[in-house]
Design a protein that fits this description.
It contains eleven helices and eleven strands. It is an alpha+beta fold. The termini are far apart.
Length: about 375
């Protein structure tokens, strides 16, 4: 009799355990990382990070993913769960192909994906819960459970293979697979311009490579007749241009926000783009002062913001760098609004051959220094 009761209790506990797991994966979950819904699945599910981590071994992915930022190719060790596995084994997808929509918690618009791509074993879509050995926190709220979706590149140099802060995945109705895809015509490669400046003397040899590389990419220009004029000062408007070009931003139309910038000015769209992206700010009196020479503390603040936008460094990490630990003798002269950027850039040796013992925050930057600082921050490997 005792043995029968024991078996009965064990059976009941087993049923309760199974049911409780089903609930966690299906409904009644108050806090979750991502949900999978839509007419293209038999069962809508909500998944917590613990759900993902407890998936069977065949569902887990722990691999290096290569992706492209605006300035360089990067890689990350990604740990997570196969999206194809979740759709097939947990959500019961009902089609071989359908439109799949990723929704981000910050409202960032993500191009529609297809089941055909997601089921492509070469692309390996993964719901990542760990990147480079660390948990994910892109919204600066550690209490929120977050995942990032990665996929492999279809071709080298491809963009948009990382999707951050995805909270909802919607699978639409089945669509007919397209017939054999037509080969994509390769776009002719844009050859980098071979530019030689005759005035890069020994005095400016420290910036020669930076000037050459940025000129090849069309980010900086000379002043004509084979000259770069490395000794000349750099204005705020000129630095708007170099940063917009360096980050690969498309110029936007000037909306007339500053009293000293006119729509017909060559720099107007660069100013608008730089301000909208958060690189630059105007002055309290409504001016931008486009022709004002830029000084070191301003340039440091701008390239530091550019490094964050280009995903060279995360803002949270940059904020940990402080001038108190700087080696510059005049570190107390660096204003608070540029302190984190200057400290981080110093740590990255960006100011090599420009600022050695002192930073001299209000010193005007010349064209050689401007090229070196931008190159060292965004393009140096």
């Amino acid at each position: 009799m005792f043995i029968k009761k024991t078996k009965l209790v064990t059976f009941v506990l087993l049923v309760v355990l199974v049911l409780s797991q089903t609930v966690v994966l299906a409904e009644g979950v108050e806090s979750f990382a991502v949900e999978i819904v839509g007419s293209g699945v038999e069962k809508e599910i909500k998944l917590t990070l613990d759900n993902l981590k407890s998936m069977p071994e065949e569902a887990q992915i722990n691999e290096e993913y290569i992706y492209n930022s605006k300035t360089r190719e990067k890689s990350a060790m990604v740990k997570g769960v196969s999206l194809a596995y979740l759709l097939k084994e947990k959500a019961g997808v009902t089609a071989e192909n359908a439109e799949v929509i990723f929704e981000a918690s910050d409202g960032y618009e993500i191009d529609p994906q297809t089941l055909e791509d997601i089921f492509n074993e070469d692309l390996k879509y993964v719901l990542a819960y760990e990147i480079n050995g660390e948990s994910i926190d892109n919204d600066d709220n550690p209490d929120n459970e977050e995942i990032v979706v990665y996929r492999k590149q279809k071709e080298p140099g491809e963009f948009s293979t990382v999707f951050k802060m995805v909270v909802k995945i919607t699978v639409g109705e089945a669509v007919e697979s397209t017939e054999k895809a037509k080969p994509v015509e390769e776009k002719p490669k844009v050859e980098e311009k071979e530019i030689v400046f005759t005035d890069i003397t020994e005095k400016y040899a420290y910036a020669a490579k930076a000037i050459e590389e940025l000129a090849k990419k069309g980010i900086i220009d000379g002043v004509g007749n084979g000259l770069y004029a490395p000794e000349r000062e750099f204005t705020r408007a000129q630095f708007c241009k170099i940063m917009v070009e360096a980050l690969g931003y498309k110029q936007v139309e000037y909306t007339g926000g500053f009293t000293d910038v006119k729509a017909g000015d060559w720099f107007a769209p660069y100013v608008q783009t730089a301000v909208e992206s958060g690189l630059f700010e105007g002055y309290d009196n409504g001016t931008f002062k486009p022709n004002k020479p830029i000084v070191r503390q301003e340039m440091a603040a701008v390239v530091g913001r550019g490094a964050v936008l280009a995903e060279v460094v995360e803002q949270a990490r940059m904020d940990k760098f402080v001038m108190e630990k700087s080696n510059y003798k005049d570190k107390d002269l660096v204003p608070e609004w540029a302190a984190h950027q200057v400290a981080w850039l110093e740590d990255q040796d960006v100011f090599s051959n420009v600022a050695v013992e002192k930073f001299e925050p209000t010193k005007v930057v010349n064209r050689a220094e401007a090229a070196l600082i931008v190159y060292n921050t965004l393009f140096r490997k």
